[in-house]
Automatic annotation (TrEMBL):
Name of this protein: NCS2 family permease
Keyword line: Cell membrane, Membrane, Transmembrane, Transmembrane helix, Transport
Record-linked InterPro entries: Azg-like, Azg-like_bact_archaea, NCS2
Pfam families in the cross-refs: Xan_ur_permease
Membrane-topology descriptor: Multi-pass membrane protein
Origin species: Neglectibacter timonensis
Highest taxon of the lineage: Bacteria
Taxon lineage: Bacteria, Bacillati, Bacillota, Clostridia, Eubacteriales
TM helices/strands, residue ranges: 18-35, 103-123, 135-159, 171-190, 197-220, 259-281, 301-325, 337-358, 394-423, 435-453
Length: 455
């Protein structure tokens, strides 16, 4: 342990690393309840997604711990899973495709392979550095708003309205009441620095829901999509089969819809790119792992771990696997090496045998987690500049508002970049446009043309 992870060199020990790994797991274990809930909306088997989520998280986190020796955990990314289920799949469904999630998984596989190539040739750093900071922060904050609105919709807190687009749902329903209670519980726990506050918020909200079911307030009605909240252990504790999602790719779509497929891949690629690098830098900074000039040692190994995890996740049947900012919770507990990551991975493996619990958790119990994660991502807006270069200001703002209001992460990225490039050209700053941004601009203009022509 000492020689492999260099514990003394990093000022830590085995006990500290294990506790830090468990802390990280508690901070991000909500994904085991949230991800199956979100991806099931795309038509995927909820049990298979649970297993895929846990296995891919354990696999990618082990790679990060062993090859990069970083205390960083990975799992299916929030925001990316929402884009998968609520943007990509509905658009493909409108085209008459019966299993759109298979095409989305194919796009994630391609994205992961591209990431592996970009990591090998060190292109990812160039891509990250070419996008202006305001756009990055606007995209991050926009994803936060998007995740929040997905959560509010899932609990029925906001509903569709023909005259105002959205309206307040039935505030007397158990789902709405308990979702708000859960959000307040997370807020209170967060204030008192309770480890795993988000996970505890989900679990407490779920238990309150079970009480509501037992007392008759929450009425089970499968025909209306209202299912029992009580876990069913009749099939034992073995994890659900991966068969429904394992290697379920659809390459036939690509040949006839090249442009649509490219845009899907690019959006996954773009969001994952900045999410990963931003997370790695944030965790490394908190753990004192950055060099004096602010660089991240072995960043190539860390980025490669992320890319390989994404490919593995696609093969297993889950959305893009990425580094988790919740890893900072473990770092705050003293985690400094890959042993922390291995400890987290071990917890994900143990969680596989608790699937009846995680799969019984309803969407209204995950709403508090989605809204609170949205809050945490919204903090990026504090780093945005709302004066100065109008291209940076308006480009970042357009990216931010288009995500929740068009209900699409991809639309936010697309319109943000298109606005930024056009404003740079019109204000005489064309030389400041990096070739990568020109490529992005060209792809998105083609995408807009396909939308106009309905092709």
């Amino acid at each position: 342990m000492e020689k492999f992870f260099k514990l003394k060199e990093h000022g830590t020990n085995v006990r500290t690393e294990i506790i830090a790994g468990i802390t990280t797991f508690l901070s991000m274990a909500y994904i085991l309840a949230v991800n199956p809930s979100i991806l099931s909306a795309a038509g995927m088997d909820q049990g298979a997604v649970f297993t895929a989520t846990a296995v891919s998280a354990a696999f990618a986190t082990i790679i990060m711990g062993v090859f990069a020796n970083y205390p960083v955990a990975l799992a299916s990314g929030m925001g990316l899973n929402a884009y998968f289920a609520y943007t990509v799949c509905p658009q493909l469904q409108e085209m008459g495709i019966t299993d759109p999630w298979k095409i989305a998984l194919t796009a994630i596989l391609v994205e992961g392979i591209i990431f592996i190539l970009l990591s090998l040739f060190k292109f990812r750093e160039t891509l990250v550095n070419s996008v202006p900071a305001n756009l990055k922060f606007g995209i991050s904050a926009g994803i936060g708003l998007f995740i929040a609105i997905v959560g509010l919709k899932g609990a029925g807190i906001i509903i569709a309205d023909p005259s105002t687009l959205v309206a307040l749902g039935d505030v007397s329903s158990p789902a709405v009441v308990l979702a708000f209670v859960g959000l307040l519980i997370i807020g209170i726990m967060w204030h008192f620095k309770v480890k795993g506050a988000i996970l505890w918020g989900i679990l407490i909200t779920w238990v309150l829901g079970i009480i509501a079911e037992l007392t008759g307030w929450y009425v089970v009605n499968p025909e209306a999509g209202v299912y029992s909240l009580i876990p069913n252990f009749s099939s034992g504790i073995l994890p659900p089969s991966l068969a429904p999602t394992f290697f379920q790719f659809d390459f036939s779509f690509i040949a006839k819809n090249v442009m649509n497929f490219v845009v899907i891949v690019f959006a996954f690629l773009f969001v994952d790119l900045f999410d990963t690098v931003g997370t790695l830098i944030g965790v490394a900074d908190q753990g004192g792992l950055l060099t004096k000039d602010g660089k991240l040692p072995k960043v190539g190994a860390a980025l490669m771990s992320d890319a390989v995890g994404t490919v593995a996740g696609a093969c297993l049947g889950t959305s893009t696997v990425t580094s988790y900012v919740e890893s900072t919770a473990g770092v705050a507990e003293g985690g400094r090496t890959g042993l922390t990551a291995l400890s987290t991975a071990g917890m994900f493996i143990l969680a596989l045998f608790l699937s009846p619990i995680f799969l019984a958790i309803p969407s209204f119990a995950t709403t508090p987690a989605l809204v609170f994660v949205g809050l945490l991502m919204m903090k990026s807006v504090l780093k945005m500049k709302f004066d100065g270069d109008i291209a940076d200001v308006l480009g970042g703002f357009v990216a931010l508002i288009m995500m929740p209001f068009s209900y699409s992460i991809a639309n936010g990225i697309m319109f943000g970049i298109v606005a930024w490039v056009i404003l740079k050209v019109c204000t005489g700053k064309i030389k400041e446009i990096h070739p990568v941004m020109w490529v992005s601009f060209g792809l998105f203009v083609l995408r807009i043309i396909t939308l106009v022509l309905h092709v």
